[in-house]
Amino acid sequence: MATLKVPAHVPAPSEDAEQLRKAFEGWGTNEQLIIDILAHRNAAQRNLIRKTYREAYGEDLLKSLDEELSSDFERAVVLFTLDPAERDAFLAHEATKRFTSSHWVLMEIACTRSSHELFNVRKAYHDLYKKSLEEDVAHHTKGDYRKLLVPLVSAFRYQGEEVNMTLARSEAKILREKISDKQYSDEEVIRIVTTRSKAQLNATLNHYNTAFGNAINKADPEDEFLKLLRAAIKCLTVPEKYFEKVLRQAINKLGTDEWALTRVVATRAEVDMVRIKEEYQRRNSVTLEKAIAGDTSGDYEKMLLALIGAGDV
Amino acid sequence: MATLKVPAHVPAPSEDAEQLRKAFEGWGTNEQLIIDILAHRNAAQRNLIRKTYREAYGEDLLKSLDEELSSDFERAVVLFTLDPAERDAFLAHEATKRFTSSHWVLMEIACTRSSHELFNVRKAYHDLYKKSLEEDVAHHTKGDYRKLLVPLVSAFRYQGEEVNMTLARSEAKILREKISDKQYSDEEVIRIVTTRSKAQLNATLNHYNTAFGNAINKADPEDEFLKLLRAAIKCLTVPEKYFEKVLRQAINKLGTDEWALTRVVATRAEVDMVRIKEEYQRRNSVTLEKAIAGDTSGDYEKMLLALIGAGDV
């Protein structure tokens, strides 16, 4: 469930566009007005505002935001304003670039989106970068990471709930053998994790747990590749727990990890942030609102809190 | 260009459905009438006929065809009648099954369809088999074949004509090195062939040819995996030459290879059969019509000839 709050009566896109233009004009920028509008419109509404804004002022709203805002606040507003598929394409593209490269972001996008959402990201990637997502991922990764990440971002998993229990048992056994042998990047492990439906994978992991008495996630915490593989499995089966941990680590870090915090809030506010907040409170005995308020400040804080549904519209 | 001939005035789908029903009824089946209708309607029209038929007679047209027809004629009519995405999903599914398994058919479907067509095959595969295409391919192949085929069927290649010449040169060099070392299944070779756009791959191969003086297709004709890799490259860059060769081998074989012949005719009649026929005549000094007429007979022959545009509507 989304934490995004949209007012009962939403102004016309032309009115929102006009208000935003006013917020940019004159001395200083009216940040509160920007938050009041953009943090309280859904993806379709934001797209319409962008379209109307371009028609009225001959400039992309994102470019105006880029000129008027700065730093973490800018990144939060721009990321959230983007259409979800475009936003993921943008984040994935960043994640293949040298100075912002991240196997984790690629894995997160590949494993927590639905099959159709991920395909829409691949379409947006063509449009934005004149290349395919998988060719950039393949080109900019190597070894075991390439073996895992290319099929992850290329997957179009079956989304039905049907489960084949015989298969779940046989593949749990394969996973067990390979993991006992520390062959984390074995091609059978990669095949199972990258191609099976989420429902099927869940059945396989349940069987693993029952038959072998411990969760797959307990193995060898020092291996970097295994960490990524475990996180992929978590994203595929219990995404809210994965996101809770990313938020926890981002906030608890000495010096908040704003990139991770902004990314999770901007990408999940319209999806499952209610569940993530529940997980966060259960695990940290403090609400996510309180944690974010204690760790951030100013307009950036206001933007994040608006997106996670703190306060009224 | 398609060889499929659709009459200037096409009867209403309900009329076609009624005629087909009549063709099935009474003593014997009216095969000519079936050919006259189904071999002369485009994909959208055939879909409408199937829909109307189901509504009128409570049975799938494909099931009726299956009951009334047999052998090669049946396969040709049924394959052609299927919607292109469904047909490819059906062929790909067959190609992952034990007794009809074929790396070649999987490669052909992955490499000769457009990116969006291939994605539609993956969607149809979900609907028909409650699984993903890539999970079946990964599950039923191994070793080098899996390394090549899984990314091929999962690809969503960029389809623009933009070409990066620096990249073409550097990747031609990579291909040259690996192929000189007979490392045909090297992960860099696989990466280049499975992720680059067709235009980019073409530029890379042109550079290969210019810089190294011989085509990539000349290497080591005895290696089975290399044969498949070479065929993939051919499918991606000059599909009509690939299909010409499949037809030539199917027809020249001692005992025609009807499966290959039917597959190519049924899948290409609505796409590029005009070009394939030109290639065929150039390479064999005989028209494809004549070659097929000499090698097949009866209703099967009539169906194939209708699809490759022999005679009038």
From TrEMBL, chains A, B:
Keywords: Annexin, Calcium, Calcium/phospholipid-binding, Metal-binding, Repeat
InterPro entries with a match to the protein in the record: Annexin (IPR001464), Annexin_repeat (IPR018502), Annexin_repeat_CS (IPR018252), Annexin_sf (IPR037104), AnnexinD_plant (IPR009118)
Gene Ontology MF: a single term: calcium ion binding
GO cellular component: cytoplasm; plasma membrane
SMART domains assigned to the protein according to its UniProt record, in alphabetical order: ANX
Positions contributing to Ca(2+) 3 binding: D295
Binding sites annotated in the UniProt record for Ca(2+) 2: K253, G255
Keyword Hydrolase assigned: no
Cross-referenced PANTHER family: ANNEXIN (PTHR10502), ANNEXIN D2 (PTHR10502:SF220)
Free-text comment about domains: A pair of annexin repeats may form one binding site for calcium and phospholipid.
Family membership noted in the UniProt record: Belongs to the annexin family.
Protein name: Annexin
